[in-house]
Amino acid sequence: YWRNVVGFWYLLAHKCINFLFLINSLIPYSLPNTSAIPLVPLNENVTHSGRYDCNPFSTAVILLADILPTLAIKLSAPLYIHLLPYSFRVMMCVMSAGASFIIVSFSTSIGMSILGVVFASISSGLGEITFLCLTAYFFHSDVVSGWSSGTGGAGIFGALSYSGLTQVGLSPRHTLQVMLVIPLIMAISYFCALVHPASLPRWTMTVNRASASADRRPLIECNQPPTGGVSSPPLPSQKIFSPPQGLLKYMIPLLLVYFAEYFINQGLLELFYFRNTSLKHSEQYRWYQTLYQLGVFVSRSSVKCLQIRKIWLLALLQGINMVFLLFGVCFLFLPSIYLLFAIILYEGLLGGAAYVNAFNNITQEHSQSPEQHLEFAMGVASISDTLGIALSGAIAIPVHDHFCSL
């Protein structure tokens, strides 16, 4: 029990994937002019003629590069994912995550940096759908709360470690190279920490039972496929791209929550710059992301204490946050950075609560269903947050450009 819960929290819980996603969001605001990665950073010494202290390279561009491959993987996964055993999927996640760290750290052009982000997105998309579906094969739902808490912990770990290492003088390139240990830990967690259930789909050797001698046949025949492959049958093809009606009440609010919070994070927060503080603009942005990740971590770890059934209420509150901060950018009426800090922390609390409660509710409602049905439901539901992020990134770019042109 504890090996599985801890495995899903500390090791499997997207630590490297969330870390990559966070780093990719921070790249434009973290790299000095001498960096090998030629993304345009903020320059606090330049006097801007417009109303806003703008970075011409919006973080929403990186957001789209990071989320579109993930969305493609999640939408197409029902066609082939059942053919791949979990061990193979995990190794693909590990290798693509490691490739992302290496490519971004040695990048010499924007195109090469975006390629590294794409590899991170492949790891993120395949990893999330793999690990969420994997929870269906464990007999206790605590692995879902462990997974969600771990993803939140990954975010705050990534924010603090990256900011801390760069603050003490380590270059962004060397910081990313040091973090190559994270994909390795991820592999160790799956193959060593977790206790794999017997029902977990695996590749099996082809067995010709007709030619097997009687003394070598098992006393109890198991229902395994006569030809090699993964021992998990695919769901009927008519269910692909048609989520059960019971999932929509969670998928639609989750989509709206993620649309609102990523529109805030990648479209609005970089436009807030308080000149009456000792923090430079790039430092303020890092603290925005760090506080957001702190809120996500706290709320994703709270499902054992507080369970929420009405996910639409969280979507409504997050939408109010988005509208309020949009007006805040338009009219610049927020008097203090500390007020914005509190709003961002609250935003993270809402987003994390929506994620963990949505998947926890799906697990509880399908607890009596066959493992393949719960596996399918978790995979389909994971599309909603990715779609919300993709939509927010597409809208955040023109919004950012509009404000920067004022």
TrEMBL record:
Topology within the bilayer: Multi-pass membrane protein
GO biological process annotations for this chain's record?
Answer: axonogenesis; lysosome organization; negative regulation of neuron apoptotic process; regulation of intracellular pH
Provide the transmembrane region boundaries. Answer: 6-27, 60-81, 145-165, 177-196, 250-274, 311-334, 340-359
Q: Which InterPro entries match?
A: Battenin_disease_Cln3 (IPR003492), Battenin_disease_Cln3_subgr (IPR018460), MFS_trans_sf (IPR036259)
In this record, what's one Pfam family? Answer: CLN3
Q: Which GO terms describe its cellular component?
A: endomembrane system; lysosomal membrane
Q: Where in the cell is it found?
A: Endomembrane system; Lysosome membrane
Q: What is this protein called?
A: Battenin
Gene that codes for this? Answer: CLN3
